[in-house]
Design goal:
Number of strands: 14
Shape: globular
Distance between the termini: 34 Å
CATH superfamily: Carbon-nitrogen hydrolase
Helix content: 25-40%
Number of domains: 1
Number of helices: 7
Radius of gyration: 17 Å
Largest sheet: 6 strands, mixed
Amino acid sequence: MQDLVVTIVQTALHWQEATQNRQMFSEKLAAAAPKTDLIVLPEMFTTGFSMNAAQLAEEPAGETLTWLKEQAKKHNAVITGSIIVQHDQAFYNRLLWVHPDGSHQTYDKKHLFRMAKEHHTYTAGSEQLLVQLKGWNIRPLVCYDLRFPVWSRNVSNSYDLLLYVANWPEARQLAWSTLLQARAIENLAYTIGVNRVGSDGNGIPYSGDSAIIHPKGIKLLEASQQEGIFTLTLSKQELTDFREKFPAHLDADAFSLGQ
């Protein structure tokens, strides 16, 4: 059983400035030079959480995907985060999961944040994504998805790591921290939440509080409001041992996800 080294990047973002943000992340990652298997960036990491999709959206194979492929190869690690994409005349808040060999997978955010009218601009995804890395099964999701446990449910321990990229405002920090711990506990899985800090172009502040949570709900890493790049090793053996000693999943209700 292989351990998994994960790196999370918590930072402020340049509002609606994709080129500046890509350059910023390039510089931060180059300076940190993390020896890692997985690099996680926030939601809409090239723009901030913007509804200005008509001006900001990229094609599916646009500049940011090219940049992600370059970074994945350079750091020999999977890199992920979400951006604004236009595809077939619709806009998506799309997570990109990019491997060092240049291959990639995508997930379109399912739950759109109606309080910011995200559902008026973007089209909701309908398919979950399950990816593999070093023998780990990983489910990546986006921000508001965190509030909906059905979409996150770990049926028959199908994944080992649950991952959320986010632009989660400071005003709802308690919900962010509480729900991350709840998702870890109820799903018997490591859970990661990567958020941003600073304020966006709408004057909304973000407190960060990116975290890596043990399946028992213990915070193994908490970034608080600090900008930085944080790396932690997750133990597959520890996860397996815990699930064997506490197999709550065997008593889970029968379940299938309706579309």
